[in-house]
């Protein structure tokens, strides 16, 4: 009985979240449409203003060249951003591989260090405990990420 009650509450929460998401999607779509219409009318007003001053031919050519330049700038910025993202992902992957290699090497050498009767062997046990705790914390922190909260919707 308790299981069915929990499942029902989870289902209601999922339905509420889906409704909030759908409502937010509709609201943003309407706001985006209104924004595009407003920008279109402002562009038309600018075109009329400039065409009265310089003539229709020069205004049309100027607006055409302006939009082509704008498209080129957008593509250049896009390429720069994608390049930076790829470089950052490669650096993160390389750092993760180095960390993994170092941990593997340390764990592989640990049994021989612990067996030794020297000062290094006596220090290795607490260091191994610290390393094990660090591995544990790293694996636990990855699971705490929530997809989104109520404030984001």
From the structure above, extract its key features:
89% helix, elongated
Give structural notes.
The protein is built from three helices and no strands. The chain has helices at 2-54, 56-115, 119-141. The chain is elongated and about 95 Å long. The relative contact order is 0.04.
Topology overview:
Blueprint (H helix, E strand, L loop, with lengths): L1 H53 L1 H60 L3 H23 L12
Helix pairs in contact: 1-2, 2-3
Give the structure's gist in a few sentences.
By secondary structure, the protein is mainly alpha-helical. Helices cover 89% and strands 0% of the residues. The chain has a domain at 1-54.
The oligomerization state is: single chain
Low-confidence stretches: none
Ends distance: 32 Å
Structural class: mainly alpha
Tell me about the largest β-sheet.
none
Shape field? elongated
Task: Give the C-alpha Rg.
Answer: 30 Å
The number of distinct helices, counting runs of at least 4 residues, comes to: 3
Number of strands: 0
Order of helices and strands: HHH
Strand content is under 5%
The helix content is: over 70%
The overall pLDDT average reads: 81
